[in-house]
Fold this protein.
Amino acid sequence: MARGFRATYTNWQASVFGTAVILAGVAALVYGAAHPASHNIAEFICYSLIAILASRLRVNLPAMADTLSVNFLFVLVAVLELSFTEALLLGCAGVIIQSFYAEKREPIRITFNICSSALATALAYEAVPADMG
């Protein structure tokens, strides 16, 4: 009986965490949509095209069972070089492209991945000092 309760408790924790990430990601996306800015649209288009192409590439990490997407490099560059809205769009576009090729295309999983990418991009953008970008 205690074992079943623990599984329910774990599912409840996962649901709360997933909901919090999705709400925070949606908040970041809404903020980005409400405050659009573009410093150089040609630069954004070039970065976006390269990031979309690179989002299909994966790197095998030694001593780990998982892989890492090359897209994170372009998100880091976008945080330094582009506006907040452009960095959000670039990061989320890469995740959307990756989800087309995923083995499991569950809507909640895709939503979580997009929102977690938006949240991570927003936090990275806020963590970088203004004089670095």
User: Anything to note?
Assistant: Residues 2-127 form one domain. The mean pLDDT is 85. DSSP finds five helices and two strands in the chain.
